Structures are given as C-alpha cells and as structure tokens.
C-alpha cells in the first residue's frame, strides 16, 4: 500500500489549540477519511509547529485527496483549520500538502 508523508507549519500562537482540536476530530470527518482511503493516518508536531503527516492509501495521493475534496465535511473542516497554518491567505491546508519522497522503509 502506498505510504504518503507531508509537512505543514502550524502558527506558533495556535499550537495548543491545534492539538486540542485534534483530540476532538469530528466523527463524520474520521469516517470520510476512512472511506476516502486514508488509513493509518498520523500527525506529529514539534514544539515550533512543524507538522509531519503520514498515511497509507490503496490509491494514489492525488486520488485520496480528490476523494476527500468531494466531501462536504472536508470543506467545512478545511475552512475551520486553514487559519492554523502558515499558508497563503485563502488556501486550504489539504491543498498545500506536498508528498515527500520516501527514501527508505524498513519492512
């Protein structure tokens, strides 16, 4: 199954609120992620807000992201979360995810 890693940057002033929001992810968002093929999805964040995300998907990254783009819950979640990130105004965080090249994996 393809593995996807990406990085984003959370604004320093919003790190604690970002952590809190992710302790309370909406059940319909969790369901949509699973239905769209986002499995073993994890987020890791350093104290300065550098965020590393990882997930596995049976489809390509573009297909998995497109499946989420097609859901209403993703549009609502992205609208709520966009202010947390160091991204251009009006951008949605999921559109700023650029997959990292996997250079090693221990099976």
Describe this structure in words.
This protein has 107 residues and is α+β, with helices and mostly antiparallel strands. The chain has a single domain (3-96), classed as Alpha-Beta Plaits. Helix content is 34%, strand content 20%. The chain has helices at 15-22, 27-35, 61-69, 72-81; strands spanning 3-9, 39-45, 50-56. Strands 1-3-2 form a 3-stranded antiparallel β-sheet, with no helix packed on it. The longest helix has 10 residues, at 72-81. The radius of gyration is 14 Å and the shape is globular. The mean pLDDT is 95.
Tell me about the biggest sheet? 3 strands, antiparallel
The CATH class is identified as: Alpha Beta
CATH architecture field: 2-Layer Sandwich
Q: What form results from the Cα inertia axes?
A: globular
> What is the radius of gyration?
14 Å
Number of helices, where a helix is a run of at least 4 consecutive DSSP H or I residues: 4
- Give the CATH topology: Alpha-Beta Plaits
Oligomer: single chain
**How many distinct beta strands?**
3
User: What is the total domain count?
Assistant: 1
* Fraction in beta strands: 15-25%
The overall pLDDT, averaged over residues, is 95
- Secondary structure class reads alpha+beta
What is the string of helix and strand elements? Answer: EHHEEHH
Strand order of the largest sheet: 1-3-2
Q: What is the rounded distance between the termini? A: 12 Å
Residues in helix, %: 25-40%
Task: Identify low-pLDDT runs.
Answer: none
